[in-house]
Design brief:
Elements: H1 2-11, H2 22-28, H3 38-52, H4 60-70, E1 82-90, E2 118-119, H5 121-135, H6 152-158, E3 168-169, E4 172-174, E5 183-190, H7 193-198, E6 210-217, E7 220-227, H8 229-245, E8 259-263, H9 267-278, H10 280-286, H11 289-292, H12 296-311, H13 316-329, H14 331-338, H15 345-354
Helix pairs in contact: 2-3, 5-8, 12-13, 12-15, 13-15
């Protein structure tokens, strides 16, 4: 005991810095043995508050970027596999690793190297599996039960004791932000400690409440799934449903652990989205052409405007769809108009390419 007390006394002289490793601080620098007195309980509270005010490790930003660049190159161990990535944004507070063994009464899951919060791949896989089982609505997505076999789709995606699943759920690292770690102090209060401890002492109104502090996390996390495209997308759908309806981690019945899952777009997808946004108003105007159609009085003008939109970079598929809607407005007129001698080669080409004459892409009248 003297040696232990000497160590505790030594810890009291150590000053925490803003860059101190949060995981080491929580695990190694508690100055009390057990929270029996108010002073000792305050020591634990101060320890947790100190972790909340820890700044992001300087090297974590670079480490996160290197890992983010590496993940898309992984195939999940299959020749045709690929890795898709999403951002999971906390809609409130998250509690991961609350019941894991700790020198404190509660715990929180932090990356060993960097001391920052993360979502373990095993937790993500478990949530997706639970969502598939509870929300799948078909026997093929059932987990193995006492009297029921595991569904074929569930086994293929998540695996079992005899085979690995098709999809790898990587640990989801926290997307770094300037400032402190995304940790917050929370509290749960046990009102009948003796009853929960031995199961025999009856709960009573005069039992003294015992508030217990614990850490929660928030922020956005970089989710990556690897494997065959079909199964990766299926896994992401179950994970999205689980994060939205079931929640990740502990205390989900109290509303913790809810997150939104959105895909991280590639450079090409970002450029395409920007192009669609650029021409959104233009396409809205073009979409009004079918309602404005007045036969020969507007036909040439409408075709010209549609052709100009494509030449200026508007998405051809969406412009062609408007052209086919024009055709559906007055099929008889457009069949007659298309074969008139006054039609220019450009007008004929647009009608052929858009599939106007049959209302289907790539088909023309015979």
């Amino acid at each position: 005991m003297p040696a232990i007390n000497g160590r505790r006394d030594a810890l009291a002289t150590i000053t925490r810095e803003a860059s101190t490793h949060a995981g080491l601080w929580l695990d190694k620098y508690l100055s009390v043995l057990s929270p029996e007195t108010d002073e000792e309980k305050r020591a634990i509270r101060d320890l947790l508050l100190a972790a909340c005010s820890t700044s992001v490790p300087e090297g974590y930003f670079a480490a996160f970027e290197r890992r983010k660049d590496l993940l898309p190159t992984l195939t999940g161990g299959v020749a045709s596999g690929a890795t898709r990535v999403w951002n999971a944004k906390a809609l409130g507070r998250i509690v991961i690793g609350l019941g894991v063994q700790s020198i404190r009464e509660t715990n929180v899951t932090l990356l060993h190297t960097w001391g920052v919060p993360y979502l373990p791949g095993s937790a993500l896989k478990g949530l997706a599996s639970a969502a598939a089982h509870r929300l799948g609505g078909a026997p093929s997505w059932n987990k193995a039960g006492k009297d029921t076999p595991e569904g074929a789709d569930h086994r293929a995606l998540f695996g079992d004791t005899t085979q690995a699943g098709w999809v790898t759920f990587h640990d989801a690292w926290w997307v770094p932000e300037v400032g402190n770690l995304p940790l917050d102090l929370d509290v749960m209060t046990v009102h009948h400690a003796d009853y929960y401890r031995d199961g025999e002492t009856p709960p009573a109104d005069w039992d003294e409440p015992n508030p217990v502090g614990f850490l929660t996390t928030r922020g956005t996390y970089h989710v990556a799934l690897s494997g065959p495209e079909r199964w990766v997308l299926s896994a992401s759908e179950w994970l999205k449903a689980g994060l939205d309806q079931l929640g990740l981690g502990a205390k989900t019945q109290a509303g913790y652990g809810r997150m939104s899952l959105s895909p991280v777009l590639t450079t090409q997808e970002i450029e395409e989205a920007a192009q669609r946004e650029k021409y959104k108003a233009r396409l809205a105007t073009l979409a009004g052409f079918p309602a404005q159609h007045k036969g020969a009085g507007t036909a040439r003008q409408h075709i010209q405007k549609l052709r100009e939109a494509i030449s200026e970079g508007a998405p051809a598929a969406e412009v062609y769809a408007i052209g086919r809607a024009l055709f559906e407005k007055d099929r008889k007129f457009w069949h007659k108009w298309a074969v008139e001698d006054r039609r220019t080669p450009e007008e004929k080409e647009f009608m052929i390419e858009s599939g106007m004459l049959q209302g289907q892409s790539g088909e023309t009248s015979r």
